[in-house]
Specification:
Number of strands: 5
CATH topology of the largest domain: Rossmann fold
Mean pLDDT: 85
Order of helices and strands: EHEHEHEHEHHHHHHHH
Shape: elongated
Structural class: alpha/beta
Number of domains: 2
Distance between the termini: 47 Å
Helix content: 40-55%
Largest sheet: 5 strands, parallel
Number of helices: 12
Length: 222
């Protein structure tokens, strides 16, 4: 049975999020907190938490300092951000600071449930629309022909690996990729591992961010 901590200062949103969680994990245990101090206290008393869903704008958070404090004090408990934040750089920074995912508060219920499943399955989750969003970084000014990864690196990927990477860039979880490509989820995981190795990155978020502006059809035509 999974054990969640919903950390948000808005009672109505906590209730709504709990309903979404129970819609997928009926027998789960769900705890609540309304500020970073209470969140740290609950985490201290419940080291067996499977996932903390953390709002960035709770009292005491002080930007990303609350996330850092939570990760430093309880490094073994996965923390996913659930927020209305839309700034791409801040969102990516939460991942750099140790969050295992970012879920937009505006996401549909089913997308949230997919995110929970992906995170609990050991993956990092980041919505495709946020990855592709216009940001303030230099990446937002890249030309379509000027991706982060070189053409030589992308040409080392097999056609099937390119299809998997394309699906990853569209925000699809492993289960959905397996269904779309008519292969097993285990095979998808093998492809993902091979993709990360060939592109020289450590996780799927880095891979997806690096192919934000790539024209996949160009490489799939070969």
């Amino acid at each position: 049975m999974y054990k969640f901590l919903v950390a948000d200062d808005h009672p109505l949103f906590r209730d709504a999020l709990i309903a979404v969680i129970r819609g997928r994990f009926e027998e789960c245990d769900i705890l609540q907190s309304e500020d970073i101090e209470r969140t740290l206290d609950v985490a201290e008393k419940n080291p067996d938490l499977d996932l903390i869903l953390l709002d960035l704008n709770m009292p005491g958070m002080a930007g990303l300092k609350g996330l850092l404090e939570l990760r430093n004090q309880h490094p073994t408990i996965p923390v996913a951000i659930i927020s209305a934040e839309t700034n791409k750089q801040i969102i990516l920074q939460t991942i750099a600071y140790g969050a295992v995912g970012f879920i937009a508060k505006s996401a549909p219920r089913e997308k949230m449930r997919e995110a929970f499943e992906q995170i609990l399955d050991g993956h990092v989750y980041l919505p495709a629309d946020i990855i592709r969003a216009e940001g303030e970084s230099e990446n937002s000014h890249r030309r379509k022909e000027d991706p982060q990864f070189s053409s030589e690196m992308l040409h080392t990927l097999t056609r099937r690996q390119l299809l998997v990477l394309k699906s990853m860039a569209q925000g699809a979880a492993n289960k959905q990729i397996a269904y779309d490509l008519n292969i097993s989820e285990t095979t998808v995981k093998s492809h993902v591992s091979a993709i990360l190795k060939k592109l020289g990155v450590h996780n799927r978020i880095q891979a997806v961010v690096g192919v934000t502006n790539i024209d996949f059809d160009r490489y799939l035509k070969r």
